[in-house]
Amino acid sequence: MAGPFNYVGAGAPGANTPSPGAVAPASYFDKANNVVYYNGGQGWKEDLFSAADGLTAHAGGGQGLATPITTQMARFTTVATLNDSSILPSAVPGMSYTVMNAGAQSMNVFPFASEIINGLGGGAAFAVAAGKTCEFVSAKVGQWHTLLSA
Question: What are the structural domains of the chain?
């Protein structure tokens, strides 16, 4: 993670983190957890600019036990069997998640509960082939749209 951060540390910013003061807005990079925090003068807040590498899609697939996507960028390196799965959080307008499948097989990405990806049925998975990257974006509550790499 690179960037022009005002502060860099290991762990979330706390009471002892320098205040941005005259340099607001300011940013803080938590290098231990790959999370960026932003302070526009109202206190530190987690920015949705986070990444996870080396994830494992749930073996055997399915929505119920799918590996949760909890960072803005999620790179799955272990997708051992066809249709191993992950699951997105609930779709909220403005949200965007990037899923990279660096595994050996196609994986399924499920929406939260009975939400929708593209025009698929409620709760239906979207397949991301091995070697592909897919961005999931939301403009409406409960609805994801996809941008799939070539």
Answer: 7-43 (no CATH), 50-148 (2.60.120.640)
